[in-house]
Structures are given as C-alpha cells and as structure tokens.
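Re: [ENG-882] Designed sequences occasionally contain unexpected residues at chain ends

Forwarding the minimal case from QA. Structure tokens:
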C-alpha cells in the first residue's frame, strides 16, 4: 500500500475527479434522492462529480406508473440538486423493456394494445418527460438495451418489439428530438465490447443513421470486471462507433471483482469473496487501463459516469447474490478513495 499512499501525497487532494478531468470530459455518477440527502455522500458527490444520472427516478415504471399519473418528486429533486451545484444531468431512460408499467402495453380488457396505441403512449410519455426537463437535461438515454443477448438474434423479443417491430426504436428517437431539439440523444447498452454483440449494436445504429434518425451517441454501460474488457476490445469498440459520427459516453461504469455475466453470476462453492490485496491491485490496474484509453479518445468520449457513488452501496449488492459485495467503485464503504482512485487521477 506504500506506493498508493505516496501517490496520494504527491497529488492535490483538494481536487476531485471532475477537476483532474476538467480538460477531458465531465465525470458523472448515478444517484438516488436518498443518497443526495446523506450529508457525507452529498459532500463527496459535490467534490468529485459534475454530472448526475438518476439511477431509477426517471425510468418509465417509476416516473409514469399509471396512465394518467406522473411521479415527479424524486426526479425533480435530483435535477434541483444538480442545478444548485452547477452539475449537468443525463436523463435515464425513456424506453426500456424492464421497469415499465404493465398498463403501457395492455388495454382495459387485458389485451395487448395495437401498434398505433403503443406508439402514441410512447410519444405522450416522451413529450411529457422530456418537455418537463427541457433545458435542464442535456442528454437522454432514449432507448436502452434493445439488442438481444442471444447472438443468433437481433432485437430483443420485448413487448415493444412484439407490438411495434423495429419502429419503436426509430420513433423513440424522433419523439425525443421533437420534444427537445437541443438534447443529445443516446442508444445505451451493455457488453458493447464483446465482438458479437458490438456487431449487432453497430448494425442497429448504422440503420438509424442511414435512415436519418436523430441519434447522436452510443452509451457504453461499462459494467465491467477484472477480466474484461481488454485494452484492444475497448479501443476497437470506441473506434467502431465513432466511425459512425457518434459521440461515445461511458454511462454506467463499475469494475466488479467478479466475472460479469448478467444471468450467471451465482457464487461458486468455496469461492473467495474477500476484497483481497490481489483483487485490489488488479482492480487498480484495470481502472488505470480504461482511463488511459478514455483519455486517448478524448475527442470521441464526451462523458464518463460511474454507476453509484461508493462501495457502501452499489446496485450489484443484491443482484444476483444478496449481500455479496462486488467492491466495484473508486470509493470504499467509508467513502474514502481506494488505490484505484489514485491510479485514475495520477496521469
């Protein structure tokens, strides 16, 4: 640990991530109102970050749980906090197969609605939400995770797709652009660095660009691990999407000490769950590598957002193994910078 301590002593500890990266790109974090109300965590957020993403408060099922009711309280509080502290806000998200209320897809008799009805409901939702925050939210994750996990398929077989085909993707971007022509519009997904999925995401985005759909960027969720991505995989991903003229943002960054598999991350018998010195070192090296790549492609990357503030709480704590810590962030459970933090800011 001596070398990390030395790094901390030679750096300006009055600065935050946002200050070290001021000439590169905004550094953001996903938050909840509860985190913002905690004095210690809010102080850390104000020092370290200059962009906020609502972790859940703007997802369709949360903000629009019933056809004629919108729950604005939490979303409004996050936007107000950002404005009070001179921070940007990324809206997350407008259209997703998860965390969408059932009413969106069904009529009063319990039957699936028609394509026209569903697209009208999507338009109404986007106009209402984007319109409310016009001028306050600079970027939106418009469509989230539409590509199937099965490499033999293209779009995920969600109710959006079953009812509307590919048109729901096209229309979501058109509606968002119409609602706020100045907002930067992103397609957002995970496992974007894996070649087979990257190829299908690229195919979708090229179709959108060729059809003159107003998509401006690709969000690389960056739920990574000690084991992936490699430097080459990451650089290739950025290069490929940038070749379409798209902005690239790292939208949900965390680096778990466990392998990343969405549906298969159960504990193995006898598996070591400690945050060992070896894991700490590997995580530091991985964070150092990915930020070296981010800085290299500063002309293409327009934002980096961490998914949660510290190891005190992360979305991985209860997914899929309740109570297992993944230790994926730059700050520990006491909100102190980890060795990985110093690797990220020491350049």
């Amino acid at each position: 640990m001596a070398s990390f301590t030395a790094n901390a002593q030679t750096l300006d500890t009055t600065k935050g991530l946002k200050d070290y990266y001021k000439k590169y790109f905004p550094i953001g974090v996903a938050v909840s109102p509860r985190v913002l109300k905690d004095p210690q965590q809010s102080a850390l957020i104000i020092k370290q970050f200059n962009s906020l993403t609502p972790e859940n408060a703007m997802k369709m099922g949360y903000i629009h749980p019933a056809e004629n009711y919108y729950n604005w309280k939490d979303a409004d509080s996050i936007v107000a906090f950002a404005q009070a502290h001179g921070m940007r806000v990324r809206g997350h998200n407008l259209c997703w197969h998860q965390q969408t209320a059932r009413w969106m897809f069904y009529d009063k008799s319990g039957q699936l609605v028609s394509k026209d009805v569903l697209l009208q409901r999507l338009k109404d939702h986007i106009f209402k939400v984007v319109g409310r925050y016009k001028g306050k939210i600079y970027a939106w994750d418009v469509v989230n995770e539409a590509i199937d996990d099965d490499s033999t398929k293209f779009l995920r077989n969600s109710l959006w797709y079953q009812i509307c085909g590919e048109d729901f993707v096209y229309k979501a971007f058109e509606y968002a652009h119409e609602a706020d022509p100045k907002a930067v519009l992103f397609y957002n997904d995970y496992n974007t660095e894996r070649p087979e999925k990257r190829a299908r995401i690229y195919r979708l985005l090229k179709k959108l660009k060729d059809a003159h759909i107003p998509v401006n960027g690709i969000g690389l969720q960056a739920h990574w691990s000690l084991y992936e991505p490699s430097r080459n995989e990451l650089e290739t991903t950025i290069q490929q999407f940038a070749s379409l003229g798209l902005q690239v943002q790292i939208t949900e960054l965390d680096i778990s000490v466990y392998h990343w598999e969405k549906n298969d991350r159960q504990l193995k018998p006898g598996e070591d769950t400690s945050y060992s010195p070896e894991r700490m070192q590997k995580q530091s090296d991985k964070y150092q590598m990915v930020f070296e790549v981010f800085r290299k492609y500063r002309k293409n990357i327009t934002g980096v957002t961490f998914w949660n503030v510290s190891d005190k709480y992360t979305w991985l704590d209860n997914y899929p193994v309740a109570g297992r810590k993944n230790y994926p962030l730059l700050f520990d459970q006491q909100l102190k910078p980890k060795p990985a933090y110093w690797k990220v800011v020491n350049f």
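QA comment: On inspection the terminal residues look reasonable. Residues 277-296 form the longest helix (20 residues). Proposing we downgrade this to a documentation issue.
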